[in-house]
Design goal:
With 221 residues, the chain is an all-alpha fold. It has helices at 2-14, 21-47, 66-93, 96-101, 106-117, 131-155, 161-164, 170-197, 200-207.
């Protein structure tokens, strides 16, 4: 009896946390880099706007002038690229993406959206992502990848002419980059709002949170 309890206690202790130290570190680095990228990107945008009616006020931007904003943008870009690459390698190598983001069923997404709109979406167990969370997290990874590619095209449109054709032309890349920025800002607003509604998710990203949930056995198991 005592031995069984000791074994179970050891298993709980050794089970990986919801957010391991590597994930927490990369998460906060990405968050800071993304905020700098958005603010400096707005400063660069103000120097050559896409939409005449849209201009970001100075208190929202990063950089004294466009050149200064560009320097901030490049610095944050390299941080995001290197850190993001580490995050992708970690997510695939450890199976975290498979465990946390798959599967995503359209029917489950629709059901969870309905529950969210009617304020019936449960948040009791932060260890398990609902279908909406899976979709948002998987989607934002794809958006950021497109952002990196379109950003490279804007930076080196001649040298990377093959990639430029993916966006039709230079202005197409700028438009894609702007839309991607808008999607990321929207994601951040929703992400922060949900985190404030469920404060224990913030604590988990600082402390690591509870141990991961036990995997659901498949019929073959």
């Amino acid at each position: 009896m005592t031995t069984d309890l000791a074994v179970k206690s050891t298993e709980r202790h050794n089970r990986r946390k919801l957010h391991p130290a590597a994930v927490r570190t990369m998460h906060w680095i990405n968050a800071i880099a993304m905020i700098v990228l958005i603010g400096s990107g707005w400063k660069i945008y103000n120097d050559e706007v896409l939409f005449g009616w849209l201009h970001f006020p100075d208190w929202m931007v990063v950089g004294i002038d466009a050149q200064h904003g560009l320097q901030w943008h490049f610095a944050a870009m390299w941080v995001l690229m290197l850190n993001g690459l580490c995050y992708l390698i970690y997510g695939f190598y450890t199976g975290r993406f498979r465990r946390k983001l798959l599967p995503i069923w359209p029917s489950a997404v629709i059901a969870d959206v309905r529950n969210a709109l009617s304020f019936k979406l449960a948040h009791d167990d932060i260890r398990t992502y609902n279908a909406v969370q899976k979709t948002l997290y998987a989607g934002i990874i794809a958006v950021i990848i497109v952002q990196v590619v379109s950003g490279w095209v804007i930076w080196k449109p001649i040298q990377l002419s093959e990639l430029t054709t993916l966006f039709y032309d230079f202005q197409g890349a700028r438009l894609a980059h702007f839309i991607g920025m808008a999607l990321i800002v929207g994601f951040l607003l929703v992400h922060v709002a949900l985190a404030l509604l469920v404060p224990k998710t913030i604590a988990a990203m600082v402390t690591g949170g509870p141990p991961e949930a036990d995997p659901v056995p498949t019929p073959a198991e």
